[in-house]
Amino acid sequence: MASPDSTRVSVRPAGTGDIAGVVAAYEWLFAPPGARPGSWDVQVAGARLIEALSDDRSGVLIAQRGQGLVGFCTLYLDIVSVRFGLRCWLEDLAVHPAQRSTGVGAALLGQAKRWANARGATHLELDSAVTRTDAHRFYERHDPAGRSLCYSWPV
Question: Which of 7, 91, 113, 143 has the smallest set of CB atoms within 10 Å of its CB?
């Protein structure tokens, strides 16, 4: 029988000691139907995560079961919309493939909402590739206030 600590999900802010594990966990996002960006560099990713940890307008949350990393998300306060107020962007949310549908994503999303609210954001947004149908089902189960299409151009 599993111990309670090995089944309970805990979510906390990441620290500098978590960076290597989070960088490695990006592989969960790159697996099909995802793809590794052509410019992906683990050193640059680590430096960007360190920057996110040191900026009061961004955050990195990690989910653990016992001592193991089972999920993470990155958050950025970005614009003050004329229509909606301060937006918090949930840039990346990833759960270990073997841990999906076990409450990890819900725990991360819930903590992301609390993180954003505590910093004055009026809404939390993310975009998701059209190929990520499993992720879309997860987001829909969490009653989004709206849906939209997102377009992107390299500059």
Answer: 143
Which residue, among 23, 15, 60, has the nearest Cα to 43 in the 3D structure? 23
- Which two three-digit tokens encode residue 148? 């939209």
Domain boundaries, the chain: 4-141
Task: Give the Cα separation of 89 and 136 in Å (integer).
Answer: 17
- The answer to whether residues 71 and 95 touch, using CB atoms and an 8 Å cutoff, is yes
Residue 50, CA distances (Å) to 1, 119, 152, 155 in order: 38, 20, 25, 24
Cis link prior to 33 (omega < 30° from 0)? yes
Q: Give the Cβ contact number of residue 137 at 10 Å.
A: 10
Class of domain 4-141: alpha beta
Quick: pLDDT tens for 95-147: 999 999 999 999 999 999 999 999 999 999 999 888 998 989 998 999 888 88
